[in-house]
């Protein structure tokens, strides 16, 4: 069975209200990841998982399908990505009678996902159970410091205090851009997190990773969308 893509976009965004249907360069935000997923030709279907009819309509207009509504139980502020995936995959199995071998999870805010990143992730699944997008920390985390309530500074790892920043080993963080995983291994590992799975990474530049949680983030996303040639 060809892979499935699930795009998650709930209607209850509070810090940037209605961000999933807000226009970015003339297109609803949720349409950006949907169009990239459809264009990749990797997926049997691109499913929009939402509790909001306006978001669903915007995603369908971009090429997604909306076979079922996301239940309210996994549409609140406390529902995790794994919670939504468990429910959505169960809904998919209920109407189709089967599960895909592989599934790619995108968010409605994954505006800068590209066909290239999706294909890279798919290729890496030949030797992994889950592939996620990561980007380097801007500054070596080995040189991180804490500030006590009294205002005193202390290194978290004092052994690195005398290291040059260029000599510190690189470290990366998850950017929430994509998760491409084996459905069987997701459920076999408990379907609570990707953490127990064998992981590999697609390393992306920071310019591909805007977590749109504030109006300032939106301004940055607009600037990046205007500058990057592949976003047209």
UniProtKB/TrEMBL annotation:
One of its GO terms (molecular function) is N-acylneuraminate cytidylyltransferase activity. It holds the Pfam family CTP_transf_3. The keyword Plastid does not apply. CDD domains: CMP-NeuAc_Synthase (cd02513). Keywords: Nucleotidyltransferase, Transferase. Gene3D superfamilies: Spore Coat Polysaccharide Biosynthesis Protein SpsA, Chain A. It comes from the Bacteria. InterPro entries: CMP-NeuNAc_synthase, Cytidylyl_trans, Nucleotide-diphossugar_trans, PseF. Coiled coil: none annotated. This is Cytidylyltransferase family protein. It comes from uncultured Desulfovibrio sp.
């Amino acid at each position: 069975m060809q892979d499935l893509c699930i795009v998650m976009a709930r209607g209850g965004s509070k810090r940037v209200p209605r961000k999933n249907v807000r226009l970015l360069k003339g297109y609803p935000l949720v349409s950006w990841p949907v169009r990239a997923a459809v264009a990749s030709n990797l997926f049997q279907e691109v499913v929009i998982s939402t509790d909001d009819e306006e978001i669903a309509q915007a995603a369908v207009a971009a090429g997604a399908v909306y076979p079922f509504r996301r239940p309210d139980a996994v549409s609140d502020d406390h529902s995790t990505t794994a919670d939504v995936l468990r429910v959505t995959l169960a809904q998919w199995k209920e109407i189709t009678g089967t599960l895909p071998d592989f599934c790619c999870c995108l968010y409605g805010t994954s505006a800068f996902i590209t066909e290239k990143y999706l294909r890279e992730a798919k290729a890496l699944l030949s030797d992994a159970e889950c592939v996620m997008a990561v980007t380097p920390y801007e500054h070596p985390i080995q040189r991180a410091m804490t500030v006590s309530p009294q205002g005193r500074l202390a290194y978290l790892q004092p052994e690195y205090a005398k290291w040059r920043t260029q000599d510190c080993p690189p470290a990366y963080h998850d950017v929430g851009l994509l998760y491409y995983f084996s459905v069987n291994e997701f459920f076999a590992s408990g379907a609570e997190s990707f953490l127990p799975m064998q992981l590999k990474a697609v390393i992306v530049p920071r310019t591909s990773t805007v977590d749109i949680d504030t109006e300032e983030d939106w301004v940055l996303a607009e600037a990046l969308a205007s500058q990057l040639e592949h976003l047209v």
